[in-house]
Specification:
mainly alpha; TIM Barrel; Cyclin A, domain 1; 14 helices; 8% strand
Length: 340
């Protein structure tokens, strides 16, 4: 009646129990003919049991991922799901030869990131503490990455303890993108600066002013005043007033790419304009290229910049990665003595 095509049980934190998963699927099957999809991360280490019970209860679709990227804060491996289905006598239309080919490609990619040290072991380890902190898998892996880059991986437990406090202060926003990144970044800043809300990203201020709509719970006015710096009125955004963007972005990408963009390219650009445009610039030969080559002053180009300043890495320099919405910034701060 509401126009839904399917129902997805989305367990981003990986905390649903096997018994609850089976009961939920059976109950939904009794009241609807819509396909039921189960999405659960392996963070807490329960997902294999969860998927078994869901399959027994008649779930129509389950989410997994290619084996080299499975486990920990990610999902259960597709191959494991197929093996479970085979044992339970459940058929599927998965092309197993294609899955095997995809595994080889993914395995090569995983080897590259393992060699570079970017495939973080901590993200692959089951963490039963997730039952207490209830963080989505993607949010947890981002927190680990941020702390390791700051040389503060040993403070992960402090940040995990801070996340529920920040979420409470912010009126219990749902931990989905971009709100999960906002809550996580604020928790990291609270811990690393040693003072709660000494620094707050601009997106937090936008949220507290109503830019993301009304929060599920009431936000203390003293807290809002502390972050915003004044008694700003709360004006929740109205999605009905937003201008349609698809056609405008379609036209822009058509000119930028020199061809008709795909629907998914337009959608991706609409959500993450900066990163998507940079990706297209790197991977599309014609992207952003003018019709004629600009005139270049070769003589001027060979002259060294007179205003360039050599970059000196201070021992007191600290580097922070700050996420603001879909954009990330690298910020370097140096502690200096008074008068220097």
């Amino acid at each position: 009646e509401l126009g839904a095509d399917s129902i997805c049980i989305k367990d981003m934190s990986g905390i649903i129990s096997p018994e609850n998963a089976g009961e939920l699927v059976r109950t939904l099957k009794q009241v609807t003919d819509l396909p039921i999809n189960l999405h659960s991360h392996t963070t807490a280490g329960l997902t294999q049991l969860v998927m078994i019970e869901a399959m027994k209860a008649g779930v129509d679709c389950i989410d997994g991922c290619i084996s080299p990227f499975s486990g920990g804060t990610s999902h259960i491996a597709d191959g494991t799901l197929l093996a479970i289905a085979d044992q339970l006598g459940i058929s599927s239309d998965i092309d197993r030869d294609a899955l095997s080919d995809a595994y080889e490609v993914a395995n090569t990619i995983a080897d590259k990131y393992i060699a570079k040290g970017d495939y973080r072991t901590r993200s692959l380890i089951s963490n039963p503490k997730i039952f207490e902190y209830q963080l989505p898998g993607g949010m947890l892996s981002n927190l680990i990455s941020q702390l390791e880059e700051q040389g503060a991986a040993d403070r992960l437990t402090e940040v995990l303890q801070e996340v529920p406090r920040v979420r409470k202060d912010m009126g219990y926003p749902p931990l989905v993108t971009p709100l999960s990144q906002m809550v996580g970044s604020q928790a990291v800043l609270n811990v690393l600066t040693g003072e709660r809300y000494k620094v707050s990203p601009s997106e937090i201020k936008t949220y507290l002013a109503g830019g993301y709509g009304r929060p599920p719970a009431r936000i203390d006015e003293d807290f809002r005043r502390k972050i915003l710096g004044s008694d700003q009125p709360f004006v929740p955004s109205n999605a009905d007033l937003l201008e349609p963007e698809y056609e405008k972005n379609f036209a822009y990408l058509e000119e930028f790419l020199g061809r008709e963009p795909l629907e998914e390219e337009v959608v991706a650009y609409t959500i993450f304009p900066g990163p998507v445009e940079e990706y297209m610039q790197r991977n599309e030969p014609a992207a952003g290229q003018p019709e004629e080559d600009p005139v270049v002053n070769a003589e001027a180009a060979t002259e060294p910049a007179t205003n360039s300043v050599p970059r000196i890495q201070s021992a007191n320099m600290k580097t922070y990665r700050i996420a603001v919405g879909s954009d990330e910034y690298i910020v370097e701060l140096e502690e200096v003595s008074e008068g220097s």
